[in-house]
Amino acid sequence: MAEVEKQVERLLNSKDFVVIGKGIARVDSLEAVTGRLAFTGDLLPSNVLYVRPVRSTVPHALIKDIDFSAAKNIPGIVGIYTWRDIPGINDAGSLIPDRPFLAVDKVRHYGEAMAIIAGERPEAVDEAIGLVRVEYERLPAVFDPVEAMKPDAPKVHDKGNICRHMKIRKGDVEKGFQEADVIIENTYQTEFIDSVPPEPEIGLASPDQDGGITCIGSMQNPFDVRWKVADILGLPQEKVRVIQAATGGGFGPKSDETPIDVCAYAALVAYKTGRSAVSIMTRDEAMVTQAKRHKFIIKNKTGARSDGRLVAWESTLIEDTGAYISKGHLVIVRAIFHCAGPYDIPNVKADGYCVLTNNTFAGSTRGFGAPQAFFAAERQMDELARKLGMDPFELRLKNLLRRGSKTITSAEIEDDGLAMCAEWVYNNSEWVRKRREYEEFNRKTRGPIRKGIGVAMIYHGNTLGPEGEDFAYVDVSVDKDGKVSVRTGLTDFGTGAATGLLMIVAEELGVTLDKVRMERPDTSKVQNPGPTVASRVTAIGGRAAQEAASKIREKLKGVAAEMLGCPSERVVFREGRVYDSENPENKVSFEEVVSQAYRIGLELKETGYYIAPPTKWDEETGQGKPYNQYTYGAEVAEVEVDVETGLVKVVRITCAFDVGRIVNPIGLKDVVHGGTIMGMGQAIMERFIHEDGIVLTDNFSTYWIPTAVDSPEIIYHLIESPGPAGAYGAKAMGEIPVVPPPAAISNAVAHALGVPVKQIPLTPDRVLELVKRAGET
Amino acid sequence: MSATLHKLNVYSPDSLHEALRILGEKGERVKVLAGGTDLIVQLRAGVVEPREILNIYGLDELRYIEIEGGRLRIGALTTYMDIIQSGKVAKAAPILVEASKTVGSPQIQSKGTIGGNICNASPAADSLPPLYVLNANVVLQSLDGRREIPIERFYLGYKKMDMRPEELLVEVNMPVMEDDEDAVFLKHGLRLGDAISVVNAALLVKWSDDTVKDARIALGAVAPTVVRARDAEESLRGRRLDENVMWDAAEKTLRHISPITDVRGTAEYRREIAVNLVFMGLWELAYRRGRR
Q1: Alpha-carbon distance A759 to B249, whole Å?
Q2: Residues in chain A within 8 Å Cβ distance of B280
Q3: Which domains are assigned to chain B?
Q4: What SS3 class is residue A102?
Q5: Backbone angles phi, psi at A156, to 5 degrees
Q6: Which helix (H) or strand (E) holds A634?
Q7: pTM tops 0.80
């Protein structure tokens, strides 16, 4: 397309925004930095009971006996409860009911809750827990997902260990490989990762006067918590009220099952004793139990023509989901839909297996299987480039998904966002010059540093897609004074998503942002808006906010038209002023219009609802349209590898993302920076270790996440190629920056050392192994 | 998973004499708390048997940095931050400043004390290899009197020290570095900020023109205690530091270390890093010498 036409199209797509696209600091930032934001731990009543579970110290065993006799006698202990005391259903699985809330006769992983103890003081509870004697009968266990797939492997549950087999069948992969001039085959591996939200899980429960329970906690999904707490207590849903307090980080685990656990521990005690109760996880407890990022083993076989054109791709993905499925059956779907990178490939065959083991369970974590899939796919592309003797960036450009290309599910790509990202990064990273210079440096140097530069490209199917119904509710109301309240069960847990919703409401109502405020998510005040996962709030929630606000604006338009004496289609709402577009001097204030609306008895309260178009694909072949739109990204990483210590320093990340529409540039900057550093942790540092099922890395002294001094320089660029499903064309962005770094950084390290990288994280001991291998070749 | 601390008796004496009296009376039944950056964590994790606590953090008389009679004297409660900011230490033992800067985070540096670091006796403690190459002495005091022993003789084995139950470590002192001496500290952690040493090393060289007159090399986290690489030191004496001499000395380090495998690294990896760190340290010292 000619440059001019592109500009014209851009112009036609653009809209004159007043609030959207302006950089806004998060609306709760002042409260947060001055310590006024109320977290659950700030809200404890003085007579609250403290509750903690007794956890298993073995990974797989029958519980023969639990002796509470010594624990019971500790002064201050109020109650000890086991599965026998549960009035409702003993299950805490968030989607699949496979995880007992309290273990019955068997534990399937280290740290599984078997009983809960409540006391007047946390010290008494800790002491009592130390005195509980559990008699186990150890069972054969399995900790390796490949072993677990074998027919004679120990069974984690009653059925087999493979809980989902997902398939992609596109074209004829055998024929594709026959047409290939070059075929390469490699196996890649990633590790479990804990995303360590700064605030560990906490749940506070208090009995209501009418026999119900109110829970306040740190969470992403209040309605999931309400559903499970009510079921566990055997109460109707409306008897349980759940309020999300300010939440110190989510990253996925807070949408998963541990927020349910702590609220339910506290709620069961509140229900039994009639008193307020709180359950607060320690850091080690949170790290052992909260949902991990899945470990993956991925085998990729790739065929290409000698000119670099991809003709066939075959993948086998094995996902270790631990002892309970949690979201593992959905993570494998996202992983497989992204397993061949963002490329146009005519013949694809992929098989993905979600496998149970006796490790602690994995579930929802920012990126949801995509970082692992792209690590394997993008490393494979670099290995292919090496085999072909091509520049890895050129190889990618040759195969990129562009407008009209078909994905591995045969869905048609409708925009050129990826090519735009790739072009920007190619130019602004100075790829060609640096690639050459670093190779020359490495040839000549006599010092310990090797330099490398690597690239990765991604596309990320937007929002839930195959993972559930993609809908949202947002309520907007305007009070007599013209103050606007936004109410929804969608949550902000440090993401800045609430600010985005408020900006959208302010934009639609033509008011300034200080007039709009967000209420706390409260299940008694709103409908279930669907989960706050999959980077949904701005894109999908934003559509619902837009609808609610615009309904109110349309109502007010009629009132304003009469006040201004002009036709209602000429009424403009902008920055608190309401005027006649043909005579801007003929104006009233937003407050005056609202006041008049109240006088004539108009109700200014609307619910906005949006549901994304349903997505469809064939279960047997994976063919169809699993996502409504894609976010694109291209990223170049530059590293310095010390061949004497094995330390990798990520010097610079240059990246571009197509976000569809920039709603809040400051929010996006934070998302890009935080996500990039988090992704870097997965690439070079973070490694959650189970040794025969026992967790060895349950604290920050053994589990390393990047610090500020480890962080690279981050140069980023945002591209706006609007998508059809999100508010104003916005695409999902919350998770996306975490996806490319493992791929880009490991490609850079492979470039620096001249050897293939097949396993992350690239910890110093592994890097020294690679250095040795490089010396041998 | 975690032990309870609320039942522990805590004594907080107002004077050194009072502290020594309590220690004389209670002996092994009390555990001394200085900055608490290690002890509290260990008590909570159940690594250290909960006992009564003798909290000496209030004893300001143990916070000092002095140069006297050619020796640098540092009171046991002196924090890393005090050391980092001290002009006297920067002059008399700059390697100790270098090492203190790498300890944990600024929070830890402001709370943790040098006496606590010595008595915690972690083989990975960052202050210890410098104290070894500086030929430091520790001063132990009880109601019966004071005694002073070289730091190398103070450690008997993993977390085992030549310290009687009634004794308190009150000072560490060392000769002020000479003009012809130069020293370097190297730390290898698994990330750049707030890291625990996987291997650390201190190297001190006494120069005579461009030849090594004397050398001392100490390594941490590679044996139950910090160790001196005496064969390596010996091989350097009277030599100029060319690449072969440096690699040869670095390789000889292996004779003195016996690392273990843990979650931070394998024994093999630690051996490799130890050799590389000694080489890097010698290279740095030779480079600095050449630049002068």
Answers
A1: 34
A2: 448, 644
A3: 5-54 (3.30.43), 63-174 (3.30.465.10), 183-291 (3.30.390.50)
A4: coil
A5: -80, -40
A6: strand A630-642
A7: yes
Backbone torsions φ then ψ of A35, nearest 5 degrees: 75, 15
Q: Residue B7: its pLDDT value, please?
A: 80
In this complex, do B1 and A55 lie within 8 Å of one another by their Cβ atoms?
yes
Judged by DSSP in three states, A65 sits in: strand
Closest partner CB to A765 (pick from B4, B5, B266) = B266
In contact, A548 and A562? CB cutoff 8 Å: no
Phi-psi sector, A541: left (phi>0), alpha (psi -120 to 50), beta: alpha
- Whether residues B193 and A707 touch (CB distance < 8 A) is answered with yes
3-state SS, residue B178: coil
CA distance readout (Å), B116 to A381, B37, B39, B108: 53, 9, 9, 12
- Average of per-residue pLDDT values in chain A: 96
Q: What helix, strand, coil percent values describe chain B, rounded to 5?
A: 40, 25, 35
Per-residue model confidence (pLDDT) at position A15: 58
Provide the mean pLDDT of chain B: 94
Top CATH class of A374-465+625-776 equals alpha beta
Task: Indicate which of A765, A769, A770 best probes the interface with B, i.e. most B CBs within 10 Å of its own CB.
Answer: A765
Euclidean distance between CA atoms A81 and A93, whole angstroms: 19
Identify which of A629, A630, A637 has the alpha carbon closest to the alpha carbon of residue A425: A637
CA dihedral (A572, A573, A576, A578) positive or negative: positive
Nearest to B273 among A645, A697, A706 (CB): A645
Cβ contact A338:A300 at 8 Å: no
Amino acid at B228: R
* Beta carbons of A689 and B279 less than 8 Å apart: no
A56 touches chain B (CB under 8 A): no
Positive or negative: CA dihedral B223, B228, B231, B233: positive
Secondary structure class of B115 (helix, strand, coil): helix
Output the CATH code of domain A40-139+195-289.
3.90.1170.50
Helix (H) or strand (E) holding A300: strand A295-304
Report the pLDDT value the prediction gives residue A360, as an integer from 0 to 100: 98
Which of A2, A20, A134 is CA-nearest to residue A67? Answer: A134
- Looking at the domain that runs over A2-37+471-611, which CATH code has it been given? 3.30.365.10
Cβ-defined contact of A697 to B266 (cutoff 8 Å): no
Decide if B190 and A768 are in contact by the 8 Å CB cutoff: no
> What span, in angstroms and rounded, lies between the C-alpha atoms of A479 and A505?
15
- Predicted pLDDT of residue B4: 67
Residues A341-372: b if buried by 16+ CB within 10 A, e if exposed? bbbbbbbbbbbbbbbbbbbbbbbbbbbbbbbb
ipTM of the complex: 0.87
Give the DSSP H or E segment for A637: strand A630-642
The low-confidence residues of chain A, meaning pLDDT below 70, are 1-2, 7-15, 777
Q: How far apart are CA A88 and CA B59, in angstroms?
A: 58
Query: Considering only CB atoms, which chain B residues are within 8 Å of A127?
Result: 4
pLDDT tens for each residue of B108-155? 999 999 999 999 999 999 999 999 999 999 999 999 999 999 999 999
- Rg (chain B; Cα; Å): 19
B1 pLDDT more than 50: no
CA distance A585 to A430: 52
Residue contact B4–A127, C-beta within 8 A:
yes
Q: Which of residues 97-156 of B touch A (CB under 8 A)?
A: none
Q: Taking the domains of chain A in order of start, what are their residue ranges?
A: 2-37+471-611, 40-139+195-289, 374-465+625-776
Q: Whole-angstrom Cα distance, residue A694 to residue A692?
A: 6
What token pair was written down for A578? 């309401």
What residue of B is the nearest CA neighbor of A710?
Answer: B192
Q: Which of B125, B133, B134 is nearest to B73 (CA)?
A: B134
Count the neighbouring beta carbons within 10 Å of the beta carbon of residue B25. 12
